[in-house]
Every structure is written in C-alpha cells, then in structure tokens.
Amino acid sequence: MATLNDVAQRANVSKMTVSRTINHPEQVRPELRATIFQVMHELNYQPNAAARALVSRCTRVVKLTIFEDMDTTEPYYMMLLAGIANELNRHQYALQLATKNSYEVGECDGYILTGIRDENYAWVRQLQQPVVFFGRNLQGYDYVDTDNYQAIRDSTTYALQRGYLHLIFIGIDADKPFELDRERGFRDLMAQHGLAATVVRLANHGHVATDYINQHWSEFEPNTAFICASDRLAIGIEDGILLQGGRVPADFGVIGFDGMLLNQVASKRLTTMKQPLEAMGQAAAKLLLTKIKQPQPAQEKIIIKSNLSVAESTR
C-alpha cells in the first residue's frame, strides 16, 4: 500500500506539501496540486481518514437519527440510507444510524434528522453541529423534501382526467407538515374545479383503511377515486373494495403515495406518486457536508419532484 512518503518522493515534494494538498488544496498552486493528485492516482494512494480526522479535530461521522419506528415490511428507509451512505462515502465520511433511544451515543460532525416530534426540538436546539432535516419543518432548519402539495394536486388531477366523478382524500392522522401539505393540495385542487373536498384521516396502517371501507361501503358510489397519503393506506383501501366485491379500476380508483415496493405487491398494482428517496438522501448528505464545511445562517430548502407511476388501480 502506498504511503504519504511514496507520494512525496514520486512528486519530488515534501511530505508536508502532500499533506497540505490533501487537507487544504486551496493553499497549493494549481499546477503543483494537479501533479500531486496525479501521482496519488498512479500509486492508488488513499489518504488516512482517521489521521486526517485527528488533525482537523473532526470525527468524519454523520448521524442519521430516526425518531420513529422503522417498518421492516417496506424499504423506505433503506432507499434513504443508500442515498445518504453513497454520497458520504464519496467524501470519506462514515454514516452512523441512530434511533430514538440512542441518538446521544457517540460523537459526530453533523446530523440528518427524520421523524422528528415536537418534544424532540428542545434537544435539536442545543446541538452545536449542523443539522439537516429530511422533510419540511417550520422551525427554520435546513431540509430536503418532495413537493407534497403539488404531488397530491397532480394525483387528484389525474383521477379527474380518468373520469372519476367522486374523489376522497385518505390522509394520515398526524398534524405534520407533509400531511398538511398533501391535504391542502387536495382541497385546493378540488376547490379550483368547484368540487366538494371529502377528507378522511386514518392511522397509517393498511388494516385500518380496510376497516374504514368495510364500515362505510354503502356510502361509496361507483366512479369514486381514493387519493391516499401513503401506499399502506392505498393497499388497505384497495383490499377493502375488492373484499366488498367492488371493481378496481372500473368503478373505483386508488392512488397511493411513496412507490417503495408496496405498490408492486398490491392485488392490483397501485398507481402511486413515487418519491425519489435515494436522490433525496443524496441531496440531504450533500447539503449537510456543505454546512459542515461552511455554515450558512439562512435556511436551505431542497425540493425534489415526485412523479406519478401509473399502474392497475386506476383506469
């Protein structure tokens, strides 16, 4: 394995110059910097991340802290993790996964937070390290998210274009920014078309949505579409309709939100608003690394568009 001394000898410079090129490249003349990087490439030299961390007094660790229970039945967090880890790896940072019971264990250079609850903000406010939220927040912190408002408007527009006359929004029973944005998108689009907006909030479980259909089946007219705030809810709605003998998509349409595998295993593959979670994870990591190097006081917002994936649950 090539060493720092090997690089210095091949490039005919001192070890200090090689070290400065690695840790503070802006302090080295462009021509010399290019020569040293070329020698590093030829020798396949990999800088010692641990040694660099000691010199710079940083940990080279980023924590992804999840404040909610992870469901192993869907790869939502795996896609997010892949995007974050791949971007951090490019910059020789390690990713540490922390849950609601272990988020204070160990040191790190910055945090990516998701599933945050109101009672957690006191802990967030006392952090000295940079923080990036996965999901919009109202507290002024940097975040990466999809445009939940526009996504549901697009879903609702598609249902109307397919000829469904009665639309019902099945939301998640939580006063979170993402849910409020999705609900607002539905209400605004319906108002724009002069239609009544029916909104139902349920716990985010498929069996709860199925029970809702079973209990209210007689109230649903044919030509109804259910615009759902998650694929879990959408699968439950679809299962309930089929159990009652309803025809999907001829008489009843169902549109989900997420597009992370569950939409593929539904009885009728779900039409769903697919979130680009891996790209969002990559963007969150990139934003955090930028903040670690040079903190900025203004709130940074990165919005990545979701796209409708049409399948068997709509006409």
TrEMBL record:
<keyword id="KW-0805">Transcription regulation</keyword>
<keyword id="KW-0804">Transcription</keyword>
<dbReference type="InterPro" id="IPR010982">
    <property type="entry name" value="Lambda_DNA-bd_dom_sf"/>
</dbReference>
<protein>
    <submittedName>
        <fullName>LacI family DNA-binding transcriptional regulator</fullName>
    </submittedName>
</protein>
<dbReference type="Pfam" id="PF13377">
    <property type="entry name" value="Peripla_BP_3"/>
</dbReference>
<keyword id="KW-0238">DNA-binding</keyword>
<dbReference type="InterPro" id="IPR046335">
    <property type="entry name" value="LacI/GalR-like_sensor"/>
</dbReference>
<dbReference type="GO" id="GO:0003677">
    <property type="term" value="F:DNA binding"/>
</dbReference>
<dbReference type="Pfam" id="PF00356">
    <property type="entry name" value="LacI"/>
</dbReference>
<dbReference type="InterPro" id="IPR028082">
    <property type="entry name" value="Peripla_BP_I"/>
</dbReference>
<feature type="domain" description="HTH lacI-type">
    <location>
        <begin position="2"/>
        <end position="56"/>
    </location>
</feature>
<dbReference type="InterPro" id="IPR000843">
    <property type="entry name" value="HTH_LacI"/>
</dbReference>
